[in-house]
Design brief:
It holds the Pfam family SIMPL. This protein has about 260 residues and is α+β, with helices and mostly antiparallel strands. The protein is built from five helices and eight strands, in the order ααββαββαβαβββ.
Length: about 260
């Protein structure tokens, strides 16, 4: 009796299962018939993109210009060696204060134009076969960056730094504070360059150039001019002054432009 009830219950579950499978299969057929599950169909946006890119040409344009620098960045510093770290720091502080006083007092530089770039104190050693490594003292170094806009007087500034107590100058770089304006000009040149290329290629293919479809900026920058370390040394001719040639700042812009072809 119990076995008959179990068999009947299983049969009933089987009917429910078959009904569920039938509904699922029917639903799938209905969806497929409606085109919802048609894997062979292409998305609408892909087709639109493909149509939009037909009969187009993509070219890269480069624009360049060279401009006179309007700012110099001078990296200078003081370093003092003494028997103790405290003495080295005190000596460096005295020299550094004299340099800052000269920059503000003589040339009227503002705080925004003066920035400490590094400060460190390190031990100094000497090595002998008898004693090995021996501590001989400490060196304190304080470096700063000076933003300088009187380009023609850069050499004069370097001399004044040495006279005030700066005993190292790491280098001078020349740049521009009009980067945005100059890079915009370079990008305009890049657009002209791209159009010239596209017109030439279109003509070679027997086509003519249509309107711009897309423009992508690939980058624009003004490359600073760097001058190597300046040695602060006294010369036999005390009237001689440091001479620095600023050169020119190169500005470049790049674009990728897509044009429609007629």
């Amino acid at each position: 009796m119990g076995n008959k009830q179990s068999i009947g219950k299983l049969a009933g579950q089987g009917k429910v299962l078959l009904l569920a499978v039938g509904l699922t299969a029917g639903s799938l057929l209905a969806l497929n018939g409606a085109g919802v599950l048609n894997s062979g169909s292409k998305p609408v946006y892909a087709a639109e993109q493909g149509a939009a890119m037909e009969n187009t040409i993509a070219v890269q344009g480069i624009g360049k210009l060279s401009v006179a620098p309007d700012i110099a960045y001078v990296t200078a510093g003081v370093n003092v060696t003494a028997k103790t770290a405290k003495e080295a720091q005190a000596g460096a502080a005295k020299r550094y204060d004299a340099v800052i006083k000269m920059l503000k007092g003589t040339y009227g530089l503002a705080d925004k134009d003066l920035k400490t770039t590094s400060y460190y104190v390190q031990p100094q050693y000497k090595y002998t076969e008898k004693e090995g490594q021996v501590l001989t003292g400490y060196t304190a170094t304080h470096e700063l960056s000076v933003s300088w806009r009187s380009i023609a007087k850069t050499g004069e500034l370097l001399d004044s730094l040495g006279n005030a107590g700066a005993n190292q100058i790491s280098g001078v770089s020349f740049g521009t504070e009009k980067t945005d304006a100059y890079t915009n000009d370079a990008l305009k040149k890049a657009l002209d360059n791209a159009r010239a290329k596209a017109e030439s290629l279109a003509a070679a293919a027997g086509r003519s150039l249509g309107p711009v479809v897309n423009i992508t900026e690939n980058g624009a920058q003004a490359v600073p001019v760097f001058r190597e370390m300046v040695q602060m040394k006294a010369t036999a001719d005390s009237a001689a002054s440091t001479s620095v040639e600023p050169g020119q700042v190169d500005v470049q812009g790049q674009l990728t432009v897509v044009y429609q072809l007629k």
